[in-house]
Amino acid sequence: MANRQISDDRKAAYYIGIILTGIGLLMFLSVFFTFFSAATGGVSGDEFGSIGFRAVGGILLAIVGQVIRGLGARGLAGSGVILDPEQAREDLEPWTRMAGGMVKDAADEAGVDLGKALNRGDTHQDMPFDEKLRRLARLHEEGILSDEEYSREKQKVLDEQ
């Protein structure tokens, strides 16, 4: 059974990554405030040395923050750091469950009954006439349908037309 909860360590890594990203972006954006102050004469020459550090350091900090956030969100295997498909499936289970829930919510809001759409006996009702015949012929050529089955299904399609 897959773990249905995200561990506290992963949650902490996720939030630390967000905080580091925010600090990095603030450091980077502070460079622009320095330039605007310099244009008005409010910056001394000593401050220009720290501009490069803040710009490069801010971007690097934002990148590191995003990497840590991604690892916290998806786990080591889910992020591809550890190549273990079973562990990746377990790491990503809360997110895939959430995504499926969002799809169901959107379908419910749109008035689509997923149970009815998935359990419909004849799934090719809306398919064009010629496509139905092509698919039947392909199934027959591949040996999936016998001659009798192909003839019977082909006749059904022709009768519908």
How would you sum up this structure, described in words?
- The structure is a single chain.
- α1 packs antiparallel against α2 (48-78), α2 (48-78) crosses α3 (85-110) and α5 packs antiparallel against α6.
- Mean pLDDT is 78; it is low at 117-121.
- This protein folds into 2 domains: 8-94, no CATH class; 129-160.
- It has helices at 8-39, 48-78, 85-110, 114-118, 129-141, 147-160.
- It is mainly alpha-helical and 161 residues long.
- It is elongated, with a radius of gyration of 29 Å.
Mean pLDDT: 78
Characterize the overall form. Answer: elongated
Number of domains: 2
| N→C terminal distance | 49 Å
Helix percentage range: over 70%
Low-pLDDT sequence parts: 117-121
Q: Number of DSSP strands? A: 0
The structural class is mainly alpha
Q: Strand portion, in percent?
A: under 5%
Task: Output the radius of gyration.
Answer: 29 Å
Task: Figure out the total of helices.
Answer: 6
SSE topology string = HHHHHH
How would a textbook summarize the main sheet? none
Summarize the structure.
With 161 residues, the protein is mainly α. It contains six helices and no strands.
Question: Helices and strands in order, then pairings?
Answer:
Elements lengths: L7 H32 L8 H31 L6 H26 L3 H5 L10 H13 L5 H14 L1
Note the main attributes of this structure.
2 domains; mainly alpha; 161 residues
